[in-house]
Amino acid sequence: LSGLDPAQPYFQGTPTEVRLDKSDADFVDVIHTDSAPTIPNLGFGIGPAIGHIDFYPNGGEQMPGCDKNPVSQIVDIDGIWEGTRDFVACNHLRSYKYYSDSIIYPDGFLGYPCASYDLFQAGNCFPCPEEGCPNMGHYADRFKDKFKNDFVKLYLNTAENKDFPLWRYKITVTLSGKSKVRGYVNVALYGSDGNTKQYQITKGTLKPDNTYTAYIDAEVNVGDITKVKFLWNNNWINPTLPKLGAATITVEVGENR
Q1: Model confidence at 96, in pLDDT bands (50, 70, 90)?
Q2: Which of 175, 186, 222, 246 has CA atoms 20 to 30 A from the CA of 204?
Q3: Does 73 have pLDDT greater than 60?
Q4: What is the pLDDT of residue 78?
Q5: How many CB atoms lie within 10 A of CB 100?
């Protein structure tokens, strides 16, 4: 039984007979997309974990793409009717859009077990545990009976619009060069199944021999990595023509370590 942002008003805090609960089926998975408090935030979705596994995409309260200006959202690619409805309840309705996208992407929407969204964003819950990460949505039942804990909270990020799934990588860059400069470092991944755009790993002071780490949520599952593109820029013309390189770049895949 999959709960698509089960309702908060009149249900949150009620006895289990009244609302969705893990006792309702052999396996209950829940997607929380609008769990900010109803007062004053107008959240429509229930906040607490109530299933066998509970997914909190983007932290479960504010979905990317739902803060677009009303005109661009109402004249949506899906049409004016759907755009108008989305404007009123965009976060709430993201749950079924993620679910329908999950049918097409059996390897997408990996949920990382974590104590909070902030810890997930900071990389504390990376990579997936040895038994793997459940997939939010249609394929969540692959993880039936895998978790023994009472409640399991799973976190992930999604794109602003479809296609929604993102794949998480940890990228570590150690710089080489003669002198420190200010600027930024970008990295793009190339693999057997596709390439990513450039992602910023760090900006500010770039020091040779220092190591910089970033977690990226890529729009593509690149498969086996074949190449990494490294770019740096110091944003202004420096008469000393500083040179920087990458001594090493390490890429860790969240899904399989």
Answers
A1: very high
A2: 222
A3: no
A4: 60
A5: 13
What domains sit in the chain, N to C, each tagged with a CATH number? 1-165 (3.40.50.1820), 167-253 (2.60.60.20)
Could you write out the DSSP letters of every residue in 150-178? S-EEEEE-B-SSSS-B-EEEEEEEEEEES
| β-sheet bridge partners, residue 253 | 169
Edge-first strand listing for the sheet containing 211-218 = 211-218, 167-177, 244-253
Q: Measured between alpha carbons, how far is residue 183 from residues 178, 237, 250 in Å?
A: 15, 11, 21
pLDDT at 60 over 80: yes
239-256 confidence digits (pLDDT tens)? 777 889 999 999 999 999
Residues 236, 206 contacting (CB under 8 angstroms): no
Q: 9: helix, coil or strand? A: coil
pLDDT digits (tens, 9 = 90+) for 206-216: 999 999 999 99
- Side-chain-side CA neighbours of 66 within 13 Å: the count stands at 23
Angle at 87 between CA 86 and CA 89, to 5 degrees: 60
Tokens 């108008």 identify what position? Answer: 84
